[in-house]
Amino acid sequence: MPLFDGCLLPLAQHKEEIERLSRFPYLGYDQLMPGRDKALTLDIARRCGLRTPVTFEVSDARDVERFMPRLTMPLIVRPRNASGSNGLHRVDHSEKLWPTCVRVAREFGPVIVQEYIPWGGFTYDVDVLMNHDSLPRAVVVCKRLRTYPALAGPSACGQAVLWPELAEMAVSLLQAMRWFGPAEVEFRIDPRDGSPVFMEVNPRLWGSLHTGIVAGVDFPYLLYRLAMDGDIPPVTTYRTDMK
């Protein structure tokens, strides 16, 4: 079970060879890209009717000059392809925007600039396991109670909660991608109006995996059974009294 992009992606590039030797319950490399490429993911999410941050692709200084009149500081600069918060920067002054884009692009490749969704509401992760027909076999909505580093980091304390509408949003997005295997769909609650904003997809097992496990949904074991049996019965309940 590859746990990180640096392990998953090379294997996914050789999916046919791997499957001659072992079970590999993940999509191939090209099919994983809509979940890994932030610009592609956001485009699909918008077409699914999800609210997303205003986002622009930036390749040179002229792009920054063209987009700036339509944006309000602060802004987020991030790679199109990266794991978690790697390469993500908050920019508070317009004169620092292009130099930050250059620095991020040098290390991570193509860059996007996004509207900043302020902190104040919680972040929710919808953890999902999909079968070969893109039907959900397990869905758990997890609330990030505490993160490390504070505000911008992954879960340090989480709790499963019931939010069927948010679960449906995540599943509809993954079905639009024709997803198979595990994925985490992240939403941040905009404190200005209380609405969920889609942020990104983690196209693999996720850092806050233990939250779902203590809620009674053992995603690694379910993934194993999906790989070995071809399909599994849906898990329809989970605990919300554990942190």
Task: Provide a descriptive summary of the structure in words.
With 243 residues, the chain is of the alpha+beta class. The protein is built from 9 helices and 9 strands. Strands 7-6-5-8-9 form a 5-stranded antiparallel beta sheet, with helices on both faces. The protein has a 4-stranded antiparallel beta sheet with strand order 1-4-2-3, sandwiched between helices. β5 and β6 form a beta hairpin. α3 crosses α4. It is globular and about 55 Å long. The relative contact order is 0.16. The model has no long low-confidence stretch (mean pLDDT 93).
Structural features:
243 residues, alpha+beta, four-stranded antiparallel β-sheet, 9 strands, 33% helix, globular
TL;DR of this structure?
With 243 residues, this protein is of the alpha+beta class.
Helix-strand blueprint:
Elements: H1 5-13, H2 15-19, H3 29-36, H4 38-47, E1 55-58, H5 61-67, E2 75-79, E3 89-91, H6 97-108, E4 111-115, E5 123-130, E6 136-147, E7 155-161, H7 164-176, E8 181-189, E9 196-202, H8 209-214, H9 219-229
Antiparallel strand pairs: 1-4, 2-3, 2-4, 5-6, 5-8, 6-7, 8-9
Helix pairs in contact: 3-4
Structural class: alpha+beta
For the record, give the distance between the C-alpha atoms at the N and C termini, rounded to a whole number: 25 Å
Largest sheet: 5 strands, antiparallel
Q: What is the helix fraction of residues, given as a range?
A: 25-40%
Percent of sequence in beta strands = 15-25%
The helix-strand sequence is HHHHEHEEHEEEEHEEHH
Strand order of the largest sheet: 7-6-5-8-9
What assembly state would you assign to the polypeptide chains in this entry? single chain
| Mean pLDDT across residues | 93
CA radius of gyration: 18 Å
Number of strands: 9
Question: Low-confidence stretches at least 5 residues in length (pLDDT < 50)?
Answer: none
Give the helix tally: 9
